[in-house]
């Protein structure tokens, strides 16, 4: 039986509580709580919002527009923070296990998206992901959705020092909040779930429930 995403994150948190120092745990919890407290659901794209025809770049450097993705119907986009994010390395394999097959059967594209450019193939290769992973150059789509954020701590960076801006390839602290988007064939938002707490993300059942096309395919 497939475990829920919440159960998998609970296991991660339990491991951290066993191995992390108290101050490290407290700092992680503080940032997540601050992002939840500052999150305004009305500030993100609402159902019916028209999205720009943003161009995403996949791991092979191939460009794909939103219009390409929805040429034959809806598409599902899973936004994640970056390829080295431990929680993202739990979430993307979970979505591969739970969403990829039913969406493929219904001919609904599934794409994982982050601000990271170029795409770090590590997260694909580690988990053998069956769906494409793409970057969102210049945050065009994620900003249109209103899902980016800035960390609480943004220390000055010395030349040559590793930091999130070099990891993302954006030279910025700005990063995507985890989210799941269902986009209609006319590039309007059908549903957008945003997770300011990156350890509390959308379960597959919620996504599938918003896609009657999947049920129709199962019956056909």
What would your notes on this structure say?
- There is one protein chain.
- The chain has 220 residues and is of the alpha+beta class.
- It has a single domain, classed as Glutaredoxin (3-Layer(aba) Sandwich), CATH 3.40.30.
- The chain is 38% helix and 16% strand.
- The chain is built from 10 helices and 9 strands.
- It has helices spanning 5-19, 22-38, 66-69, 88-98, 100-105, 122-127, 140-145, 164-168, 204-209, 212-219, and strands at residues 55-58, 63-65, 75-79, 110-114, 133-135, 148-149, 175-176, 179-183, 189-194.
- It has a 7-stranded mixed β-sheet with strand order 2-1-5-4-3-8-9. Strands 6-7 form a two-stranded antiparallel sheet.
- α6 links the parallel β4 (110-114) and β5 (133-135).
- The longest helix is centred in the N-terminal third of the chain and has 17 residues, at 22-38.
- The model has no long low-confidence stretch (mean pLDDT 95).
Q: Which key terms come to mind for this protein?
A:
alpha+beta; Glutaredoxin; globular
For the largest beta-sheet, the strand count, sense and barrel status come to: 7 strands, mixed
Poorly predicted runs are none
Per DSSP E runs of 2 or more residues, the count of β-strands stands at 9
Number of helix segments? 10
The helix/strand order is HHEEHEHHEHEHEHEEEHH
Strand order of the largest sheet: 2-1-5-4-3-8-9
Strand content: 15-25%
- Give the assembly state of these chains: single chain
What count of structural domains? Answer: 1
* Average pLDDT number: 95
């Amino acid at each position: 039986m497939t475990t829920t995403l919440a159960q998998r994150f609970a296991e991660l948190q339990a491991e951290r509580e066993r191995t992390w120092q108290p101050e490290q745990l407290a700092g992680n919890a503080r940032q997540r709580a601050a992002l939840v407290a500052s999150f305004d659901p009305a500030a993100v794209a609402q159902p019916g919002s028209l999205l720009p025809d943003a161009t995403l770049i996949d791991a092979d450097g191939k460009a794909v527009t939103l219009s390409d993705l929805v040429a034959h119907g809806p598409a599902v986009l899973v936004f994640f923070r970056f390829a080295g994010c431990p929680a993202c390395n739990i979430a993307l394999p979970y979505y591969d296990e739970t969403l990829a097959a039913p969406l493929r059967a219904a001919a609904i594209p599934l794409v994982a998206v982050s601000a990271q450019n170029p795409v770090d193939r590590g997260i694909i290769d580690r988990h053998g992901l069956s769906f494409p992973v793409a970057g969102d150059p210049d945050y065009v789509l994620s900003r249109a959705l209103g899902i980016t954020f800035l960390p609480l701590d943004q220390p000055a960076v010395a030349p040559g020092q590793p930091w999130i801006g070099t990891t993302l390839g954006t030279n910025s602290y700005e990063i995507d909040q985890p989210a799941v988007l269902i986009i209609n064939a006319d590039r309007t938002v059908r549903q957008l779930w945003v997770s300011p707490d990156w350890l509390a993300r959308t379960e597959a059942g919620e996504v599938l429930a918003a896609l009657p096309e999947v049920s129709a395919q199962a019956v056909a």
